[in-house]
Every structure is written in C-alpha cells, then in structure tokens.
Amino acid sequence: MSPWIKAVVLPVFAAALMASFALRAAADEAADPHAGHQPSPAATVVRSTANYSVPPIKLVRDDGKSVSLADELNDGRPVVLNFIYTTCSGICPLASHIFSQLQYKLGADRDGVHLVSISIDPEEDTPARLRDYASRYQAGPSWQHYTGTMAASTAAQRVFDVYRGDKMGHTPVTLIRAAPGAPWVRFDGFATADMLLQELHGPGHVTAAVSPLSPAGR
Amino acid sequence: MLRASAAFLVATLLAVSAWPRAPAPAPAGAEVLYRQGILPSGAPLRGEREGADPVEGAAAACVNCHRRSGFGTEEGRIVIPPITGKYLFRAGSMDAANMANPGGEAAGPRRSRYTEQSLARAIRTGVDPDGRPFDYLMPRFPLDDASMTMLIAYLKQLSNHPVRGADGDTLQFATIVTPDADPVKRQGMLDVLEHFFGNKNAFHLGKDPPLQSDRRIHFRVVRRWQLQVWELSGPPESWEAQLEQRFKAQPVFAVISGIGGRTWEPVHRFCQSESIPCLLPNIDLPVVAEQDFYPVYFSRGVLLEADVIARRMHEEAEKSGLRRVIQVYRREDIGAPAARALAAAVAPLGVKAVARELKSTNPARELADLLRETAAGDALVLWLRPGDLQALPAQPAANTSVFVSGLMGGLENAPLPAAWRTSHMTYPYQLPPQRTVSMNYPLGWFNIQHIPVVDERTQTNTYIACSILAEAAGHMLDNFVPDYLLERVEVELSHRIINGYYPRLGLAPGQRFGSKGAYIVHFADPQGKRVVADGDWIVP
To answer: How close B52 gets to chain A, by Cα (Å)?
Structure first.
C-alpha cells in the first residue's frame, strides 16, 4: 500500500467519520431547544350555543325499551349528551371516560342529571353490547345508552349536527342543556369533566327554571 | 496485501457508518406492553391526561389508537400518526415526495426526526422534537427507563420486517376452495377472480421506481397481483396441514374470497395462526370469534338467520301461542349448527325445540311423514337446500307457521311449492328492487368482461370482496403490511355505497362481520320471484 494512503487517507477518513457522528449528535440537540419548557396541553375546545329541535325519534334504550328521543331528553333534568360506538378505539374511550368522571364528580347530585350516549353504529351496538360498554365505564342508572335502526341513529345525529356520513367520520362533541327549555351548549373537542360540571353549575346558563344543582333561589 | 487490507478496512468503516441498519427483533414482553398495556414488571401501563383521570392497562395500550401495524388511523378530523421506527426516525413532512405517513392526507406539520432521547421525552411529557405539544387525545406515559427502552426497540422493528407474499414487483394472494364447495358457485367465483386479477395486471409496466413525486397527490404504488388457487382435498381435519404446506411453498400476502361448504374452521384457524388476512369468503357458516383479527366475513350467515327467526318468535310468542319449534335439516350440512343456534335462542321462551334430520336422497316421503307430526301452534323451520324444498308435499300443515332459510333455500329462487309460498323466509340482503343501483356495477362489469352469471350472489360477493381489497391496498401506499391492510379495510368499509346485495357493510376493531341484519320476507304470489318484506330490517 502506498505510504500516502496509510499516512493521510486513512486518518482523514477516520476523522471525517468521527466528525459526521458528532455533527449528527449536534443536529439532534439543536432540533430540540424548548424541550421541557412546554406546559402540558389543555384540550382545545370550542364552545357554542344552539337551539336544536328534538323530534320524537324512536330509539331503543340499553334496557331494551323502545323510547322516544324527545321524551328521553325532556324529563325535567339537565342533559349531557354524546355520541359513541362500542368498537371505537380513539375518540369514544376518552369521551366515555370523561362522562364517567363527570358522573363521579356529580356525587350525590348524579341522579339529577341525565347522561345520554347515543350509538352511531346501531347495527353492531345492540342493547346487550351497550350494557357491556356502559359497565366498562361504571355507568350508573342516570347514564343511559341508546341504539335503534340505522335511520333513527342518523336522524338523531342530524338533530345535533354531528352526522358525518359514517361512524369513521365522527368528531368529539358534547352537548349540554343545563335546564329544560334552555338553549343547548355545544362543545367541539374534548371538554373535560370540570368544564361540563361548570356548565351545569354556572351562572347565566340557567333560565327561569331553577337547576337542581344550583343553590335555591339563584 | 497491504492494499487489500486497506481496502477491507475502508469497506468495513463504510459499512459500519451506513444507515439504516436492519432492526433487531422485538424484545420479549414488548408486544405485551404495546398491545395489552402491561409493563415488564406486571404492573399496568398508565397514561395521564390533564384534567382527566389516568387510564390504565388495556385502556392505555398503544394499540388502541396506533393500531397493530403502528401506522395509526384517522377518526373524523383526528389523524393518529404512525409510530413505527421507520416513521419516527426520519423527519415528518407534508411533501408527498418524502411521504412517510401512510395515511397520506393531513400528514401534520413538518417535524424534525426523533432520536431515542427525544422520543422518550415525547412519550413522557407529550411534546414532539420541535417542542410542539401533542393533541389532547395522546396521554403522557411516565415509563421507567427499562420499559421505555423496550418500547422504543419494539417501535423500531414494528412493521419493519420483510413481508411474506410482497416483494418489489408482485403481491401474492391465495383463494381457498374446500372440496365440498358447490361446483357451479366455485366456477363462477374463479371466473370473477381471474378477470379481476387479470385486469389489475393489464397496466403493470414493470418494477416501480422509488416512491417519488414533487406534486402532493395521493397516488398509488403499482404491483403485479398474482393469485394462487388452493384447492383443498380430503376431510376437514387435514386442511390446516395442507394450507401450511401451500403457504410454505408460496407465501401470500392475504387470502381473498374463496368458497366453502360445511365448515370454514380449519381455514379460519390457519389464517389466524399465520397472521394472514382472510377476506370475505363465500361461506354461509363462518367462525364466530370476533377477537380473532385476521378472518373477516360478510355476515354470520345461517347463524344470523337463526337469530333473526328467534327474534321474530320472541316478538310473536304470546300472540302465536308457540309451543314447539320443529327444525328440519341434514346432519352433514350447515343447517345443523343453525338449528342448534335457534334452539338455544328460543329456549328462554319455554318453547320446545325438536330436531328432525333428513336422511334419504329422495326425501319426499320423510318430509310428508314429518308434516303429519306437526300440531297447531307449532313452527316449522326448514334449513334445506333447493333440492329438498322441491320435495315438500304440495300442502303445508294447517296452523303451523313455516320459516325457511333464504341463504340455503335460494332466496327469491327458492323452489317452494305454490302453497308454501306464504312461508317466512329469512333474507339477509336488500330486496331485488332495492338493490338495482348497487347491482349495476357488478352486473355491468360481468357483462363487459363476458363473465357468464352462473350464480349471481356468489359472483357479486366475490366482485365486492375484490373491490374492497383493491381499495384498501391502494391506500397503503408502499407499506405492504398485512395488519395494515385489515386496518384500512376497517376504516374504509363503511364509506362504500356499492355493496352488491348488502345494504351496507361496516367493520371496526373487534367487529368481524360486515353486515348485521336481515329481512323476513314471503313470496308475493304463488308463482314468480317477487318477494315482499314482513316488516323492517331486523338486527338481532
């Protein structure tokens, strides 16, 4: 081998290799200047209000009873409503988890608030499957799940402007009506249990009817 | 000599510095962490979100959102990104030329490549390598170092191995035929498959250039499609071994369509144990095991029919004074398990279920004898093929409601004698007038291809299965991973409007039957094929 190679090329090559490793490492560090300084993200939630008109759509409740959506949402209690399907793996577990937390935080007041979850995959979500799903989230008697025909589920979704063509298109939405006759409050995004609780308790969202959760006379 | 050593040294140095290396195999326990949310210590994986209680164990497992393949998914406007090593350790980009995101659309903002350090930090604190926080849906996982190392090693090798049945040029598929499959249906199916695969290859131009474009288009990566026809022989107990042998000789990427008779169980087991997608076979008695990932069916077939009949019996029990259900079937056919399912479903009604097996090749006498047995208040359920229906006596028994399996009997072609045509027939499809638009596509395609329609149902289902496969495969870009194929089918299936006989199809994790319901119909007239539904679509 030429002495030139031994003396010059190999060492230069080796040095270049070392330098390339060092450069990669430096680049990695430089790409992350703010590591550790970011606070954890709050949910991005958009709140709006609307006056949805609920017709008597025939649904099947998780106890197997045939019911009217209008009646279920108008029994005098505040309503918190979402749309799920039992084999959903992304949005619904979190949405139902939040309902579970809300139920817990309501404590002794829980029977005074009607939690309603309507299936957007009704042919798969039979009452039996809904009961199984509900038990995973420790749903109490005031948190009920609903199914029905494809047409009924679609109609219910359209009432609240959540219909997105098929179940895979759904987005996280929670709807609250803090008192009968009040406008509906709509949360697009993952409203936390605390946000929902605040909505149920909060001032300015209660009409002449006194919310069961507010101190008497508010 | 010295020149050779120097060259060798240089070559070694170059090889050592070459990126990327082949992935090490997954460490033991890593898959359990990823799929079940259990740490090596046995403790549950814990995921935290601000303002919410933590999730633990199975509910916290990565697989829920990022899926088995690690390629993620989309739900509405939420894109759950891929987390395979191949994706993580290179820069994310909106640029189609560098599109590593298999989802294609909405790849997300540009992001620097992860390192093991920044990835660990991301998983623990919820920020990406450029300091941007993740979407609220992604929890933070306070993993210990050992678990983190294990998880990262798992991600590096996830969906990063050579795929059986997929090489640079060709995708291998197989279709499976059992020896007891109806020969006419079998031929019709093979005709459809041959033409579909032939067309797929008509525009193939040879080995693809690397995935490359400076336009942001959602484009397809073209492979030649090759179909193996695996014809089984002998008793079902021997089929699994035959399939293993075939697979060893020619590995395939997926099993498509196919046709069976009395049982599909050995095929189901083969696909599940070899991790091969088994898509939408032509069988009316599937295996019901929805936690098995790989086999996917159009419907539960005669088991669905049994549940639909039971549902009708439940609804009418009081009104009809039903005391006894007499079920007629042949032991060696699929009516036997269907009858068992129906018997179990009506047991809570206090109704007695009686089984009557047909034995002779010419059952006219047996059927006549059977009818004499029936009494008022009985229901008769016929799990019979057209040949046996034709042998029914001219007159049914009085005061006996009759149910007929549409799938076995031939639907609107069921050769029921005139006086029997008021019977209740299960019909797990759209009725003919409802499905004309949906059927325009397959029938038009058969016409153009000059495929004789020898069994419209089987051939339509085969065509639909192929379309579903083609659509899902098209969305995988160049990530030919079997798990990913199934995940794409799950996401896309309910978008489809053209489903042949089916009103709609849908799947999801843990859902393995695309269609869930049926009508109960009766013939409108003593002659002719017009059927009328008794009520709405029933989902039992």
So the answer is: 7
CA angle at B445 for the pair B441 and B451, rounded to the nearest 5°: 140
**Residue B502: pLDDT over 50:** yes
Does pTM surpass 0.90? no
Q: Which CATH architecture has domain B302-427+519-533?
A: 3-Layer(aba) Sandwich (3.40)
Q: In this predicted structure, what is the pLDDT of residue B26?
A: 82
CB contact under 8 A, A93 and B55: yes
Phi/psi at A60 (5° precision): -115, 125
Tell whether B525 is within 8 A of chain A (Cβ). no
Identify the three-state secondary structure at position A147: strand
Q: How many CB pairs under 8 A join A and B?
A: 155
Which residue in B118, B136, B511 is closest to A124 by CB distance? B511
How is the beta sheet containing B170-177 ordered, strand by strand? B224-231, B170-177, B254-256, B278-279, B295-296
Contact assignment for B125 to A40 by CB distance below 8 Å? yes
Interface probe for B, chosen from A84, A124, A138 (most Cβ of B below 10 Å), is A124
Could you tell me the pLDDT band of residue B476, with boundaries at 50, 70 and 90?
A: confident
* B131 shares contact with chain A (CB less than 8 Å): yes
Over the stretch B107-143, which tens digit does the pLDDT of each residue have?
A: 455 789 999 999 999 999 999 999 999 988 999 999 9
φ, ψ at B255 (rounded to 5°): -105, 125
Query: Is residue A49 predicted with pLDDT exceeding 70?
Result: yes
Shortest Cα–Cα distance, A209 to chain B (Å): 30
The radius of gyration of chain B's CA atoms, rounded to the nearest angstrom, is: 28
> B170-299+433-495: which CATH architecture?
3-Layer(aba) Sandwich (3.40)
Smallest CA–CA distance from A163 into chain B, residue: B76
Q: Is pLDDT at A60 greater than 80 in this prediction?
A: yes
Residues 78-107 of chain B whose Cβ lies under 8 A from any Cβ of chain A: 78, 80
Do you find a cis peptide bond into B20, omega within 30 degrees of 0?
yes
Domain ranges of chain B: 4-157, 170-299+433-495, 302-427+519-533
**Which residue from B152, B144, B142 is spatially nearest to B114, judged by alpha carbons?**
B152
Q: What percent of chain B has pLDDT over 90?
A: 78
- pLDDT for residue B86: 87
Q: Distance from B2 to chain A by nearest Cα, in Å?
A: 5
Equal fold, B170-299+433-495 vs B302-427+519-533: yes
Lowest mean pLDDT among A137-151, A156-170, B95-109, B384-398: B95-109
Ordered alpha helix ranges (H), B71-209 = 85-88, 116-125, 145-157, 183-202
Q: What is the ipTM of this complex?
A: 0.86
Q: Do B539 and A126 touch (CB under 8 A)?
A: yes
